[in-house]
Amino acid sequence: MKILVAGMGLIGGSICKAVHAYTDHSVYGWNRSQKTLQKALAEHAIDGIVQDDCSHFDLIIVCLYPDLVREWVKKYIKTISAGTIIIDVSGVKTDLPEEMTKLCAEYQVSYLSTHPMAGKERAGFDVSDEGLFQGANFIITPLENTPKHVIAEVKNFAHQIGFRRFVITTPEMHDRMIAYTSQLAHVVSSAYVQSPVLELESGFSGGSFHDMTRIATMNEDMWTGLFMENKASLMQEIDILIANLQKYKTALSENDEKAVYDLIQDGRFKKEKNLQNRRNSPSVIDLTSKKI
Length: 292
Hints:
By secondary structure, the chain is α/β, with parallel strands linked by helices. 49% of the residues lie in helices and 14% in strands. The protein is built from ten helices and nine strands. The chain has a nine-stranded mixed sheet with strand order 3-2-1-4-5-6-7-8-9, sandwiched between helices. Helix 5 (148-160) links the parallel strand 7 (137-141) and strand 8. The longest helix is centred in the C-terminal third of the chain and has 24 residues, at 257-280.
């Protein structure tokens, strides 16, 4: 295939490098910063640079923030050849898949919203990595009218660059689950480092501290947008977390050792069951009819 990646940050740059490392496809880059494009070209991460003409590509991967995905597709759709597949890698879906699918259909272009579940604490092309997606999960959020061959082609491409488990779900379910599995973890990590004790932690911390605080170095530009786009689901998860923390606080304040014991045990049981379910889960999970 001839592939175009729009947005040469961590994910876009890693996709380009993975395409060259693991496939025979050619890959071209588009980016607002020409300096980044020239660096990607010099490092042989891309085969060429695209400015305004996005025609004659089999697959276009838009690796931009959600609002910029909308702007990019609207700006360049008239130059994109009929039959092209466009995917985004946005961490929040809301109305993006439906809006872009409707627009692209007018030009006989297929659109599919996806989410590669891989990343790093730092952002940008400089930290992109050809091996970032090895063994990772890949979420696909088709609409009812998305052609099955489009889903199959995108899944096949994702498998080629390293993804090994695939979840097919609705945009609504995606946003609800991502609020819990990703966004809440970032909120907790950021809130956790607000303690004044942080400046004294050196020498006192081990693996648990580093696990809890690793993602506090997140990119505020990207994550602010993601939180705001998905605030309803995220606030719901924050409320659940606060309620669960309150149980611990109440048990401790009442010197209720059994309640503390039961809370710890319940958490262990739930996590052990979760780990067992993960081990037994298939490589393709279809949650399109699942509701929470």
